Q: What sequence folds into this?
């Protein structure tokens, strides 16, 4: 049995992570997307939009040719689940393409020290916002159900 190449494993890690974001979004009732937590920061929908927009920022820096067809989700725009889902899918695919090229060349324009660290950065950033989403929902009396809460950690099946 052969082991997948490290680059394949890194890209699969990104795909799993992106599916976890979609899993969380799918578990949130549409009427909970405009909710804010106790700190009155971004709404739940705006947290997802921020994840997408930060991806675009990195794509603009690292592989601007991949921006074609991708649009920033502006604050105050109608951010329903379908819009968020489509934007996150599109930006995740572009990040994967950019990351694959960076892994092949060993570098990513605008990010140090290397492409694998970039993956760690993105996962850390987006996971932070998943946590903020969970806290916002809890603070607004719409906590995630236990199945979803545990499901965020089931990387082997996502």
A:
């Amino acid at each position: 049995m052969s082991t997948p190449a490290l680059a394949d494993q890194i890209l699969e890690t990104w795909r799993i992570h992106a599916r976890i974001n979609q899993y969380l979004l799918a578990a949130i009732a549409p009427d909970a997307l405009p909710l804010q937590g106790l700190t009155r920061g971004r709404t739940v929908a705006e947290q997802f939009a921020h994840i997408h927009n930060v991806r675009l920022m990195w794509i603009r820096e690292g592989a601007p040719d991949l921006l074609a067809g991708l649009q920033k989700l502006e604050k105050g725009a109608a951010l329903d689940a379908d819009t968020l889902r489509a934007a996150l899918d599109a930006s995740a695919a572009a990040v994967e393409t950019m990351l694959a090229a960076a892994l092949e060349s060993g570098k990513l324009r605008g990010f140090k020290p290397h492409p694998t660290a970039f993956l760690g950065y993105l996962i850390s950033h987006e996971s932070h916002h998943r946590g903020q989403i969970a806290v916002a929902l809890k603070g607004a009396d719409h906590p995630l159900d236990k199945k979803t809460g545990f499901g965020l950690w089931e990387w082997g099946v996502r």
